[in-house]
Design goal:
heterodimer; A: 6-stranded mixed sheet; 5-stranded antiparallel sheet; B: mainly beta; 7-stranded mixed sheet; 0% helix
């Protein structure tokens, strides 16, 4: 959806390198979700951010939501081949719908070369 | 908990045929949604439900019907399949958090549909 823009569309990195994926909206994001998808499989929930300035980490993945709640970034430290896949950001852009109507970015295809 | 389950995993239809994609969740979630995923288009919302007996249209509802007679089940019906409906379909469910804000949306494994 053009309401939520993800960049870059694809990313190829060498194992051990750090990388960042961005998700940007012109509207306020009431909930921002990061998912990972392996080709041909379902979506795996990574993290959810709600509050402006919020930051969450899990293992080597850190996600942040800016103070204005219009941009989020996903940062992977010391990437590994297991990090490869498609990363999707999804956002709740309507406050009342509480996660039932997510708008998604087009995804970022991440390749990690050994 | 099985989480969100979808059947079938794969389906091939001929143009004009009808079928129902099944979705069930055992987490007692209020909210359930159907998305389709197409190359270059990302995930797009088809229909959603905020509780049993309540459904509403999403971004791309044409050609699809839904109903929600129980909290657990949210089937998606294709009344007359068209090649444009070839896609991967995901069902998802979520809860309302105690703070009233969004809850995490959990996705099923998907149904890969081809319409010839």
């Amino acid at each position: 959806s053009q309401e939520l823009e993800q960049s870059p569309q694809s990313l190829i990195v060498q194992e051990g390198k750090n990388l960042t994926i961005n998700c940007t909206s012109s509207k306020t994001l009431y909930g921002l979700y990061w998912y990972k998808q392996k080709y041909g499989e379902g979506l795996i929930f990574l993290m959810m951010l709600q509050k402006g300035g919020e930051e969450k980490s899990h293992e080597k993945i850190t996600a942040k939501l800016d103070e204005k709640k219009q941009q989020s970034s996903l940062h992977i430290t010391a990437s590994q081949p297991s990090h490869a896949g498609i990363y999707l950001c999804g956002a709740d852009m309507i406050k009342e719908t509480s996660g039932s109507r997510l708008t998604f970015g087009e995804g970022t295809q991440l390749t990690v070369n050994p | 908990n099985a989480g969100v389950t979808q059947t079938p995993k794969f389906q091939v239809l001929k143009t004009g045929q009808s079928m129902t994609l099944q979705c069930a969740q055992d987490m007692n979630h209020e909210y359930m949604s159907w998305y389709r995923q197409d190359p270059g288009m990302g995930l797009r919302l088809i229909h959603y439900s905020v509780g049993a007996g309540i459904t509403d249209q999403g971004e791309v509802p044409n050609g699809y019907n839904v109903s929600r007679s129980t909290t657990e089940d949210f089937p998606l019906r294709l009344l007359s399949a068209a090649p444009s409906q070839t896609s991967v379909y995901f069902c998802a469910s979520s809860y309302r958090s105690t703070s009233g804000g969004p809850g995490t949306q959990y996705f099923g494994p998907g149904t890969r549909l081809t319409v010839l």
